[in-house]
Amino acid sequence: MYIVFEGIDTVGKSTQIERIAKNFPNAIVTKEPGGTPLGKKIRKIVLDEGGIQPRSEILLFLADRAEHIEEVILPNKDKMVISDRSLISGIAYGLEYFDYLKLELFNTFATDKIYPDLVIILKLDRHTLEERLSLKKHDNIEKRGVDYLLSIQDNLIEVTNNLCINSLIIDATSSIEKIHNTIMEKIDVETY
Predict the structure, then answer these.
(1) Cα 134 vs. chain centroid, distance in angstroms?
(2) DSSP for 134-183, written as a single string
(3) What is the dihedral of CA 190, 29, 164, 147, to 10 degrees?
(4) 1 Cβ contact partners less than 8 Å away, ≥ 6 residues apart
(5) N or C end of the chain: which has fewer CB within 10 A?
(6) What is the distance, to the nearest Å, from the Cα of residue 110 to the centroid of all Cα atoms in its chain?
(7) Which tens digit of pLDDT belongs to each residue from 115-167?
(8) Distance from CA of residue 119 to its chain's centroid?
(9) Hey, is 53 helix, strand or coil?
């Protein structure tokens, strides 16, 4: 089962992925970008160095996505794979600059039409997002501001629905334990 966690920065994806992985010790845990050697380089370029044009940024993410599918997802298709982000983020972030159909076409090409089996979307309200962002140093994406991130959040849900991928949307302001239990219940239903 290929499970993806989606959500804007500070929603708690890493915390939940870590907790879920403890319940499935044989699961493969990965992320986009950064789940492959190429992805680590791309992550550094886009999130830390920055200064590249939106089209270049998308092409770098597409290269990472194609590599990720070939090196991580396909070789482990008989196992549980838990990923922080996927093509859904690729399309959702790209929608701020480019046409949906083009983004879907390119991302589908990069993934060879391999989609997640389940998408967990963690969602925040404006107040909580502002509060959480104020407590951390910002990467190049977070520096684009709260309005930008909230727009991306809406895009994540829209893209998941457009691709007809099985999903669960969770209020990320709930307790860590409540979120974890909700996710585990959904995984249990999907795997049995």
Answers:
(1) 22
(2) TTS---TTGGG-HHHHHHHHHHHHHHHHHTT--EEEEETTS-HHHHHHHH
(3) 130
(4) 80, 81, 117, 118, 187, 190, 191
(5) C
(6) 15
(7) 999 999 999 999 998 888 777 776 566 667 788 899 999 999 999 999 999 99
(8) 9
(9) coil
